[in-house]
Design goal:
With about 120 residues, this protein is of the alpha+beta class. It has a single domain, classed as Gcn5-related N-acetyltransferase (GNAT) (Aminopeptidase). It is built from three helices and four strands, in the order αβββαβα. The chain has a four-stranded mixed sheet with strand order 1-2-3-4, with helices on one face. The two termini are about 25 Å apart.
Length: about 120
C-alpha cells in the first residue's frame, strides 16, 4: 500500500483480514514467499447503484509489474464477482494514475466519469 501513498501499518492490515466476511474477498499474488500483489473485492448493495462488485484496492509491487500478475489478479476478482451473481464490476482510480487507467482499459474497463472524493473528519 505504501507504493501507492497509503500509510497503513501491518497490524491494521492484519485486523482487516481477520474481519473478512461474506461480502469481501482478498486475493494475494506471491512469488515464492514474497507477496507481489493483492486485490480486494467488495460485493455489496449500494443504495443508488444497487447490487454489484467493487474493486476496493489493487496493487502490484513496482518490481513485479508487467509480468502478468495484475491480469491474473483481475481475472480472479472478476471470476469471483461472477460467481456471486454480479453483472459488472466497478473500480475507482486516482486521476494521476494514468498507467493504471491504461491497464484497466486494456482489460475491458471503460471510463464512466471523473469525480472528486471529499472527506470530513468526525470528531468523537
Amino acid at each position: 500500500m505504501a507504493q501507492l501513498g497509503y500509510d497503513v501499518p501491518a497490524p491494521a492490515i492484519t485486523a482487516r483480514l481477520q474481519r473478512l466476511g461474506e461480502r469481501r474477498d482478498v486475493f494475494v499474488a506471491t512469488d515464492r514467499e514474497r507477496v507481489v500483489g493483492w486485490a480486494a473485492l467488495l460485493i455489496d448493495e449500494a443504495f443508488v447503484e444497487g447490487f454489484g462488485a467493487f474493486l476496493e484496492g489493487f496493487v502490484v509491487d513496482e518490481a513485479a509489474r508487467s509480468r502478468g500478475i495484475g491480469v491474473t489478479l483481475l481475472e480472479a476478482v472478476e471470476a469471483r464477482a461472477r460467481e456471486r451473481g454480479c453483472a459488472e464490476i466497478r473500480v475507482q482510480s486516482n486521476v494521476l494514475r494514468e498507467r493504471a487507467h491504461s491497464f484497466y482499459e486494456r482489460n475491458g474497463y471503460t471510463k464512466v466519469k471523473a469525480q472528486y472524493q471529499l472527506r470530513k473528519p468526525l470528531s468523537q
